[in-house]
Structures are given as C-alpha cells and as structure tokens.
Amino acid sequence: MPHLALHGGPAVRTTPFPSWPIYTETDAKAVGEAVLSGKWGCMSGERVSAFANRFADMQHASHGVCVTNGTTALVLALQAVGVGPGDEVIVPAYTFIATANAVLMCNGIPVYVDIDPETYNLDPALVEQAITPRTKALMPVHFAGLPADMEKLLAIARKHGLALVEDCAQAHGAQWNRRGVGPIGDIGGFSFQSSKNLNAGEGGIILTNDDKLGKLADSLANCGRSDDGVWYGHYRLAGNHRMTELQGALLMTQMERFEEQTNRRHENGEYLTEHLRKIDGIRPCITPAYVSRHARHLYVFRYRSEAFGGASKTRFVEALRAEGIPASPGYSIPLYKQPVFMLKNFGSFASELHRDYDFGALYLPETERACNDEAVWFTQSVLLGEKSDMDDIVRAVAKIRERRQELAER
Ligand SMILES: Cc1ncc(COP(=O)(O)O)c(C=O)c1O
What we know:
CATH class of one domain: Alpha Beta
Radius of gyration: 22 Å
Number of strands: 13
Bound molecules: pyridoxal-5'-phosphate
C-alpha cells in the first residue's frame, strides 16, 4: 500500500464531495415569483404559512410557527413553556452554543449533563441527579439528527413536572418510534441555517401539538399579537421574529428534494457504518431501535487512538483530509469551557443568580472524550454522494489504519 498522503503518497481521492446547498432554476424561479408578487412579508403572503403547514405535517405536529432562525425558535419555545429568571434547564454539553444560549436568553440557567457515549445524545441515566427545585425544563438535542431517548426523558419530565423542549436544529425528518421529532415533548425548535438539511440561508420553526403553546409561540413570534387578527392589539412583551416570504418560497422548493435526499443520506450512512465498523479502532455511533428515521445531519464515528499507534484525533483527521476526505473533528471543547461560560460574559442577561454556578469547574467525562479524543464527523452533504464515494472514505480510513506507524512521523 502506498504512503499516506500526509507523507507525499497519492491521495485516495482528489475529486470533491457534493457541495451544499443543492439548487436549481426552480429555486430561483420560486424566489423570483415571491419577489414579483410584491408580498415579501409573511403577514401578507401565503408561502410561509403553506410551508409551516407542510413541515408540521411531516413532523406530525398540529402547529408550526416559522421564525427568523433556530436560536430564536428555541428561545421562544422555552419562553412558551414558562422558562424565566433563575429557572434551570437541563441541556447536553456536546452541542452547538445556541442550545445553552437560548436558555440564558430567557434569563434561565443551562445545567449541563453528560452524553451517552454510544449515541452522543443526552444520557437519561444522569438527568435525574441534576434536577433541583429550580429545574423547569429538559432540553435534549437530537444531535446529528439522531433522536434522543424520548421514552426515558418523557418519563423523567412527567415524574418531576418538568417541561420537555426538543432542540431539533439538526433533525429535519427524524422520527422516534415513527413519530416526527419536535412535538413529542411539549414543543420543539428547528433551524434552517445554511448548513442544515433544509436550508433557507437562515430561518427556523417551532412545532407543537399543544394548542395553547402553539398560539403562545405564534404571539411571541409576532409582537405579542393574538390570533384575533387585530393588527394593533399587543398582549405580551414580544419582538418581531417573523420569517420572510422569500425564505418561505425557498423552503417550499427544497421540500421537493427533501425525501430523496434524506433517503440517500440514510442509505449511505448505513453503508458507511457497515464497512467502517470492520476497521479496528473505528466505532460508528449506534442507532437505537427507537429511531425510525435518523436525519443524518452529520455522520459521526468514534476514533480510538490506541488502534492507530497512539496518534491523536487531530492527527487522524489531518491524515483523512490529506487523503481527500473532508472529515471534521467536530465540537472541539465542551460547551461549558467556551469563554462565554468561563467568564460568565452574559451581558445584559447577567444576573446575581449566576453567582452559584461555576461552569469552569465542570468536567463531564464523555463530553470531554468526544471533544478531545473520539468524535469524528462528516457533514450531511458528504452522504449525498454515490456508493463509490463512500467506498473512498472506507478505503482512506483503512489505509491510515494500515500505515498507522506513519501517523506518528512528522
Ligand atoms: C443543536 C443546535 N441548536 C441550535 C442551533 C441554532 O440554529 P440557528 O443557527 O439557526 O440559530 C443549531 C445550529 O445552528 C444547532 O446545531
């Protein structure tokens, strides 16, 4: 076998993987039509509401409220279930910053709980010990598009009278026990930011099956108005978080490709797992039986350095990239180690209540291990390739494993 590309050998692959977003003239036409309709805002047009209904149907929700982005969707979802000053919300520490920021932006406090090392989702076995009299809600993340263990989380939420808010920013189309994620708990929020499997540049949606929460979320997204249709009637403090019709148009056309893309990601994800798991030192994250559909926003596997001559994850990712495989080391530090938490740099959201919380003293072993040593990701567009593209990934990993002694050399 030739040398690693890191050491001047030929790369396994020199052609790029599919890029994202995928678009055609149809998207441009739909946005153009929205422009030419003269109805650019969702209060006068029909595109955003049509998309909200379609997406809500797909996820088995009775209410869908489109908003400006996923962070806002989570903030409003948390506000709708009543999270306010001093309320604790249990979140994983292996997630994007917005999960925790949304809690702080409601004047609440994110309480970090470790992940299950097999799935990288919030570990239900550790949740109860983190509950205090201040706990108001649980907010699991369906990380990478893999539904969290909702049966156990719902049972804990019910037992302790807590709200359950789903962070579905990475989980478009994901299903738990044949139910779409988002409205399984009380309420959930999705993101349509550029990297997401459904993308409008920016955007988000709140889903729920609870009529009261649905109306409240709608009001919170729309300046505190009610559903009585009165323009100058404002019933609660709320901003304008509405989505534009241009985004609505783009989301509608993307929906036409969504099922086919989701199926392709699924098939390629399964194929990769079948082959990568055979390589010593590589363990793809598992898909538990309660997962009826994995959204595969990311393909995630665990790297064991001992099987690769002790080389660090960083070095392994470097080697994969040199072979032409766009691997990512993922979240590089646990969320609680971000400067914003270490310094409690919460701006106008800073409060006396934060005095009791020392984020810098936290150490969640599985999250640390995922960040520092184990987790390797491919983004979703890599899974939109052909089987031969997946074979290249497998060949590159196998090559690095075989020539592992070279990883140590500089
Ligand atoms: C887990 C998670 N939560 C929340 C968000 C926030 O979404 P947005 O970037 O649309 O605000 C993202 C992604 O960006 C995310 O990955």
